[in-house]
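re: ur question from yesterday

yeah so i grabbed the chain u mentioned. its 173 aa long if i counted rite. heres the sequnce exactly as i have it in my notes:
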Amino acid sequence: MSENLQAIEKALSTKQPKDVVLAFLLNTSKELVANAAEKLVAEDAIYTSLNFNNPELKQIEPWAGTSTGREVYVYTFSNVGTYWNVDDFQVTDLIGEGETVAVFGKFTYTSVIAKNTFTSPFAIKATVKDGLITYFQFLEDTYASAASFRVEGEWTIQQDADNSKRFNVSANS
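ran it thru and got these structure tokens back, copy pasting raw so excuse formatting
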């Protein structure tokens, strides 16, 4: 039995929040996530990806924002494996207290079309009740992930009233 399936079996057996979240993370590839979600995510689970509600970001990353339902987990993680090649994904810390689990780590993705590679830290807050994920909040370097799709264009940035501090950011920067 593979490490991925063993993790799911352990989570189903112990129902411990840390085991459930780790098993889910070990099974988030687009080939495995539907099975993991079916076994480890509540039907009405809430998923918050990157922000609570940002329509502009949702155009770039359609899973961004807050959604409800097990199918959102499958949709989100399947798309990660479609939009990017997952070059590396490392959990560095997994902390649990009661029903709450915090996960920290880093990943490196390369966008499939634009071929832009980026490395980002990530943080997850999850809630597990009765052996099922009921809430999952995923945070990353959203600027880097969205920018990995840039193929052209330029932004002019100004953070304060001093015009001399304006600068441009382009797809080739």
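noticed a couple things. The beta strands are 41-49, 65-68, 84-97, 100-111, 117-129, 132-140, 154-157, 167-170. also Residues 38 and 131 are 12 Å apart (CA to CA).
anyway ttyl
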